[in-house]
Amino acid sequence: RQITAETDLIDGQVQPASLDLRLGRRAWRVRASFLARKGQSVADRLAEFAMHEIDLAPGAVLETGCVYVVELMESLALPADVHAAANAKSSTGRLDLLTRLIADGTPEFDRVDAGYRGPLYAEISPLTFSVLVRPGARLNQIRFSKGAAQLDDDALRALHGVDPLVNGEPLI
């Protein structure tokens, strides 16, 4: 129950190290890229930035040079010690789409804080050519982590014997 979806997960959606996220039915063309600051929801920000809503059910063309926010089918109710990071699937690179995950109250793209409860959205911007999208399209993937996985500079120096701030030069 930490991951819920409008429709059941499908075969191939769960990968060994990630979960593919699916586009939902609604998208909004927005004036500019945005994030939801602490205490704000993406829906609040859409009220400020949305130009118009688009129904993806019959399929919709996303035009180059425009920014869209699309609700995802999956939402999260993470435990207090689990956080997540997202990235675009490799197929989006081949399509030359910029796609990033947005979550309520999260001031950073592609990150979901530990304990997050709420919906997920994808920001999509076609860079080279327009694309046709439908609900269920999988453009992003998310990975879940428990605990802290970041090392500070001192820990990196100790681990690798190099200074990460000096182009990886060995310590003398």
What does this structure look like?
The chain has 172 residues and is mainly β. It is 12% helix and 45% strand. The chain is built from three helices and 13 strands, in the order ββαββββαβββββαββ. It has helices at 42-49, 90-94, 153-160; strands at residues 3-5, 19-30, 50-55, 60-62, 67-77, 82-88, 97-103, 111-112, 117-126, 131-133, 138-146, 162-163, 169-170. The strands form three sheets. Strands 1, 2, 3, 5, 6, 7, 8, 9 and 11 form a nine-stranded antiparallel beta sheet that branches. The chain has a two-stranded antiparallel sheet with strand order 4-10. Strands 12-13 form a two-stranded antiparallel sheet. The chain starts with a strand and ends with a strand. The mean pLDDT is 90.
Largest beta-sheet details: 9 strands, antiparallel
Order of helices and strands: EEHEEEEHEEEEEHEE
- Low-pLDDT stretches: none
Question: How large is the radius of gyration?
Answer: 18 Å
Helix content: 10-25%
Number of strands: 13
Structural class: mainly beta
Mean pLDDT: 90
Shape: globular
Number of helices: 3
What fraction of the residues are assigned to beta strands by DSSP? Answer: 35-45%
| N-to-C CA distance | 51 Å
